[in-house]
Amino acid sequence: MIVEALRGAGRPVSAYELIDQLREQAVLAPQTVYRALDRLIATGAAHRLETLNAFVACSHTRHEGRAVFAICESCGTVNEFDEPKAVDCLAAWAKRAKFSVREMTLELRGRCNNCVAGDEASAGARRSARAD
Ligand SMILES: [Zn+2]
Ligand SMILES: [Zn+2]
Fold first, then answer.
1. Domains and CATH numbers, the chain
2. pLDDT tens-digit series, residues 2-30
3. Alpha carbon of 102 to ligand 1 centroid (Å)
């Protein structure tokens, strides 16, 4: 039920937003929701975005606690991308350092393609042609 609600949201949501969304189906205690989210995170079906204090359904085949997100600070769009090389590289480093990784979620913050394109369109008139 919770993973369906996460998928349906299509954006990161907080545990309390989930409880609100599911209110018509069931009255859930926050503890129940957090426990369920922990399980989903452990199996890779969902990820926690620390900087947004929100949860999001995994948009790829499940990967246990490893994910890379690009978070647009202008429009709030969150994109999960599949970058196994990046996480493998960090996992290899952790192994060498004998660091036991429980969860690995990388969050890139900045501006999405749409927002950058919007900026460029408005700046286009002022910009001089670039010499290659
Ligand atoms: Zn994922
Ligand atoms: Zn954006």
1. 2-123 (3.30.1490.190)
2. 889 998 888 899 999 999 989 888 888 99
3. 15
